[in-house]
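User: Okay, second chain of the day. Same drill as before: sequence in, structure tokens out.
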Amino acid sequence: MCADTGAQGGDGKDALLRTLTAFGSDALRDVWLFDQSDHESMYLRDDVERKIADLNVAKYVDNERYGYVTRDTYADLHYTSYEYTVRGFDGYEQFRTFLSNDAQRIGVFASFDRREGGYDFGTLYDDLMDVVADHHIDSFRPE
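Assistant: Same drill. Structure tokens below.
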């Protein structure tokens, strides 16, 4: 990956991955970026890579794209802003949010092994928004 060159450009992906790794440590399973047409795997733990080797990952990411619609729906229905979604699966939890600057939105989802006491996903969201504030939104675009 490219070196991080700060708020005016560069590669925010490194900072994003560092934030997710610091949050989840060894429990981090995978990290994916997506937009309306593309997706990119930023991190895939070896055991998870073996488990998904025969799966249609593109179809899974397509399902996550419904988040664009639900985010807009929540904006119309709720008096507060949508921030993130967490889904519980057997053995892990998946976090999804959108990195945005109002005009553009890049989706990110990551999964973490389940752990006793759970996670503070609100803190993770806040930390990710700090990363977004420090980088141009285009630096998160999937390749």
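The chain has a mean pLDDT of 87.

User: Thanks, on to the next one.
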